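Progress note, sequence design subtask.
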């Protein structure tokens, strides 16, 4: 069963470039060891690693962690299901982007054709 406390409002993400694992843990309500585990399970989650293998997360990492947390804790997905859901979102984004590029190229080619017909 889902944890009733998981529906609580998460704090806003401050306007910073990098966040430590401790800050991310507080901002996303996920323990640090869980974050390290999720890095292994979700290829989309890749924090920057610096000296001493210290992790520094960026804003997009926090948004991804919150999405993973929502899928697992609030929507009841398994790790495998959440991974597939995120990969499906990535594939859908790629398809949409490809369709937009194709439309743009077609419009440009039609303009060139009109110029050539003159």
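Output:
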């Amino acid at each position: 069963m889902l944890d009733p406390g998981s529906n609580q409002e998460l704090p806003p993400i401050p306007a910073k470039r990098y966040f430590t694992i401790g800050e991310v843990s507080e901002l996303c309500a996920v323990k640090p060891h869980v974050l390290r585990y999720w890095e292994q399970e979700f290829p989309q989650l890749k924090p920057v690693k610096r000296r001493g293998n210290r992790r520094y997360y960026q804003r997009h990492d926090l948004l991804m962690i919150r999405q993973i947390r929502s899928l697992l804790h609030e929507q009841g997905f398994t790790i495998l299901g959440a991974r597939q859901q995120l990969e499906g979102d990535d594939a859908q984004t790629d398809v949409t982007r490809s369709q937009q590029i194709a439309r743009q190229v077609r419009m440009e080619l039609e303009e060139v054709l009109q110029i050539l017909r003159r």
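Residues 1-7 have pLDDT under 50 and may be disordered. Work on this subtask will continue into the next period as scheduled.
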